[in-house]
Design goal:
Two copies of one chain form a homodimer.
Chain A (H helix, E strand, L loop, with lengths): L12 H8 L3 H9 L6 H14 L5 H8 L4 E6 L7 H12 L5 E6 L4 H13 L4 E5 L18 E4 L8 E5 L1 H14 L5 E5 L5 H14 L5 E3 L4 H12 L8 E4 L2 H13 L9 E5 L3 H4 L7 E4 L2 H16 L7 E5 L2 E3 L11
Parallel strand pairs in A: 1-2, 1-3, 3-4, 4-5, 5-11, 6-7, 6-8, 8-9, 9-10
Antiparallel strand pairs in A: 10-12
The first copy, chain A, binds a DNA duplex through helix 2 and helix 4.
Chain lengths: ~350, ~350
DNA sequence: TTCTGGTGAGAAAACGTTTGCGCAAAGTTG
DNA sequence: CAACTTTGCGCAAACGTTTTCTCACCAGAA
């Protein structure tokens, strides 16, 4: 356990100044490494401040500087499947710069969103990161004219906004190429509803690798659909697939379970790749899933650094940044060496 | 979409006062419904404030009042399995009182915890809610002498702290009684590692209902353990169980999957109950799991209201509050009417 | 000696609120 | 009509910083 947090009254800069025998102005400058003064004075003030455990009051400081060292993360992803890794990345990037993050879960509720945004703006957040669970949907709130910078992470932003998304096309290509490199000849794609933009992106990347032989099966994002798709592909069919690229891990898990129940060996007879690297699903599948990780943590980190840059007045080129995905190899495709 | 957020310079109370033809003091009092003034004046000020879209600067206000209308949620549950529902409850309880929540994910890293706590204290949070992923473990930070109130939610707190946990014993009793009410005769308990306090609480509650015939199998919190336990109980055994109370949903899912693979019908031959109501697991199980929900959202709500009461100076009796769990009936036990 | 310029440091204003106090006008009481 | 009381409102301080302005002092140059 660390030292207990002090419970004595917080020392103010006034106390530091008095104890060091200088004015508050000098104390402030000493602690912020600004202004001119003798080395001795500066050191003495710092020393005294440390002894008193002085930490500046962020509200007083913010009142003047218009900076709160606080940002807001707005999301409609109540499950946290996507938001938590993003949040972790943001935090990781910003915490040692003294920035704290308000997490606001708005569940597609416009009124709730407004309440949260207003509360954050009252608190003078330095910026807002909008996030969500679908890259092709917007949050139910219009932040275009917000008085603070906004960046979008894993959610759709308006024209000319700064947006971070994962490069699903690249991730999909790697997944399909991985299957091909394992010697799989008939590789199909079982994925989610056509209404999702990411379904198209992934499907097109798949098609680009596979070419004419591409077979795409659209359904739901569920294990049940994975089962059903396997039934469709295997029941009474002579030449079933030997490679399956799934649109997400839940479908992949359904597929793997269904294959096992049919006595089809994974990865012996069929190799399966998922998408999302949702640990709880991917790692519990038998065998554990090889799957595409969207690197959401890195995405959060980038978003965090960007919002900070914007808050500090730097100019950031608007546009969509696609961050690379990474194939996480487990056991559902067979050994890690190409066949 | 709602009205776009204003981007014009924020009106200050000075602007409101000027526009309404009163002093800032009167304007402040009018808006806060304090002080004495004519009804007309008060209304006029409010009217003007509304027209200008005035929202008080929380930093200025906080500087004076020592309240930031901000609290911190500290957690080491990176997955968010437990923290997210708690967070949702807190937010739900506090957002319309204008309170925003800092989420700080510290992963059992003492230094990181300290950084986060210090950052929050600098920002003058009104209180801290400590949360976690195990009720019998403490966060790696000592908050006993924190200068703000602290409550503990779903994590162990020091002597004389205010702590909220779920009433696992009650939830377990209901689960076991539910199995018994279905006419199940040999009800066993397959649960997690003995090192977890909640394992004991749940096991003892199970034992209290079952009595001498209690059979408890300790293992891991994994699907794999669920499979293994089923193998132990069925392989070559004459009279297998007909009711299984599992320590969590992952074990339950493993159990149900294993039974299906053996051709044992759930709920036809065996009824299974889980614990946690982790949607992603419970709902995807075939059949969907009847399971115990710990009502973490309600727990968060209580914790939020309590920290607010403490922040407002109310006295709250220290001690452990156990909030009731609720059995969520799906299909893994058979029809909803007692047999 | 007087001027110039650099150095070290303090006084006070500023940020945007809330609030204690005071005061004039109006109302009430005897 | 005098003496209170109430009403309605403004002045200014306060919160804890940062920052601008000012100034005294000293060294070196003219």
């Amino acid at each position: 356990m660390s030292d207990p947090v002090r419970n004595i009254e917080r020392a103010r800069i006034y106390d530091v100044a008095a104890a060091a025998g200088v004015s508050v102005a000098t104390a402030s400058r000493a602690l912020n490494d600004t202004g001119r003064m003798s080395k001795e004075t500066r050191e003495r003030v710092k020393q005294v401040a440390a002894e008193l455990g002085f930490r500046p009051n962020a509200m007083a400081r913010g009142l003047l500087s218009k900076r709160s060292f606080t940002i807001g993360l707005l999301t409609n992803d109540t499950y946290g499947r996507f938001t938590l890794p993003v949040m972790a990345g943001i935090s990781e990037a910003l915490v040692d710069r003294g920035v704290s993050v308000f997490l606001c879960a708005i569940e597609d509720d416009e009124a709730l969103a407004k309440v949260h945004v207003d509360a954050m703006l009252d608190k003078q957040v330095d910026g807002i990161i909008a996030s969500g669970k679908r890259v092709d949907r917007r949050l139910p709130v219009d932040l275009r004219n917000a008085p603070v910078p906004v960046v979008y992470a894993f959610t759709d932003g308006p024209e000319d906004s700064v947006t971070f998304v994962s490069d699903d096309a690249q991730g999909s290509r790697e997944a399909v190429q991985w299957l091909a490199a394992r010697g799989r000849k008939r590789i199909v794609h079982i994925t989610g509803p056509e209404s999702f933009a990411s379904v198209h992106v992934r499907a097109e990347a798949y098609r680009a690798v596979i070419g004419e032989k591409a077979e795409i099966y659209y359904g739901k994002w569920t294990e049940a659909w994975g089962h059903e798709a396997v039934a469709q592909l295997w029941d009474g069919k002579a030449n079933p697939p030997d490679g399956i690229f799934c649109g997400n891990d839940q479908i992949a898990r359904g597929v793997v379970d269904a294959l096992r129940e049919r006595g089809v060996s994974v990865p012996g007879n069929v190799s399966v790749v998922g998408f999302d690297n949702w640990e709880i699903v991917a790692a519990a599948t038998r065998p554990p899933l090889t799957t595409v990780d969207m690197n959401l943590r890195a995405l959060g980190r980038e978003a965090g650094l960007t919002i900070l840059a914007l808050a500090e007045g730097e100019r950031v080129e608007p546009g969509i940044r696609r961050l690379p995905c990474q194939l996480v190899v487990r056991q559902s495709c067979g050994g890690s060496a190409p066949a």
